[in-house]
Amino acid sequence: MTDRVNNFPPLPKFVRLKPCFYQDFNEDIPEPHRLSVKRLYYLWIMHGITLVVNLIGCLAWLIGGGSAVNFGLAILWLILFTPCSYVCWFRAVYKGFRSDSSFNYMLFFFTFSGQVVLNIIQAVGIPGWGVCGWIATISYFGTNIGVGVVMLFPTIMFTGLAVISFLALIKVHSFYRGGGGSVGKAQQEFSTGAWKNPYVQQSARNAAAGAIPEAF
After folding, report:
1. Where, by residue number, does the polypeptide cross the bilayer (predicted)?
2. Is 99 in contact with 205 (CB distance < 8 Å)?
3. Which of 4, 89, 164, 194 could pair covalently with 112 via S-S, beta carbons 3.0-4.6 A apart?
C-alpha cells in the first residue's frame, strides 16, 4: 500500500498547521457504500453549521437580555463538538465502511448514539445549557419576538438534526447486522489487532466491494 499524504481538513497554504487525516471517498470506500458515507459526512457538516447558527441565536439572546453563560457555552460547544464529532464518530464509520471493521462500527454506534441523545437535549433547549431549544425559544417569545425568531432557527435545526441522526443510526445498524456484524466480532478484531492491520483492511475492503449491499 503506497504512502498517502493527509488532505483533511483542507487548510490554506499560509496556515502552518498540516492536515491530520486522509480522506478520499472514491479511493477508500467501495462504490456500493460511497453515497452512504458521503451522506454521513454531509450530516457532520450539518452538525457544524447548526452549532454556528446556535451561536448566532445565543448572541441575539444575549443582546436581548439573556445570560452571558449561554453565549459562552455556545462558543465552547462549537469549538469542542465540531472536531470531536468528526474524530469520534465520522472517522469511525468511515473506517468501518472502508475495511468492514466491526471494531470501528461499534465505536461509531457508541459515540453516535451519544450525539443523538445530545441533539435531543439541544432541541429541548434547557436554559443555561448554551443552546437555543424549544423551551428557551418559546419562553423568550413573550419577552422579545425578534430575538425569539432568531432563536427559532437553531431550534428547528437541532430538531431536524436529531431526527435525521436517529434515522441514520438505524440505517447503519441495519446494514451492519445484515452483513453479519456482532459485538463478538468486534471483540475478536480488537483482541487480535486485525482492525488496525492494513493488509487485513485491504482484503476486507475488496470483499466488501463485491458482497455487501448498499446501506442506504
Report:
1. 41-63, 69-93, 105-125, 145-170
2. yes
3. 89
The rounded distance, in Å, linking the Cα atoms of 125 and 128 is 9
* Amino acid symbol at 126: I
Q: Residue 9 carries which DSSP code? A: S
In the prediction, which pLDDT does 210 show?
38
Write out pLDDT tens, residues 85-100. 999 999 999 999 998 8
Q: What is the pLDDT of residues 41-75, one digit of tens each?
A: 999 999 999 999 999 999 999 998 888 999 999 99
Checking if the pLDDT of 188 tops 60, the result is: no
Q: In a 3-state reduction of DSSP, which class is residue 21?
A: strand
The dihedral formed by the CA atoms of 21, 4, 204 and 177, expressed in degrees to the nearest 10: 20
Predicted confidence (pLDDT) at residue 206 exceeds the cutoff of 60: no
Q: How confident is the model over 107-115, as a mean pLDDT?
A: 94
Give ∠ CA 19-1-15 in degrees, rounded to 5: 10
CA gap 139, 213 in Å, rounded:
47
Taking CA atoms, 133 is separated from 61, 119, 189, in Å, by 12, 10, 41
Q: Which residues of 113-141 are buried (b: 16+ CB within 10 A; e: fewer)?
A: eebbebbbebbbbebebbbbbbbbbeebe
How would you class 30 by CB atoms within 10 Å of its CB: exposed for 0-12, middle for 13-18, buried for 19 or more? buried
d(CA 204, CA 99): 5
DSSP letters spanning 137-171: HHHHHTT-HHHHHHHHHHHHHHHHHHHHHHHHHHH
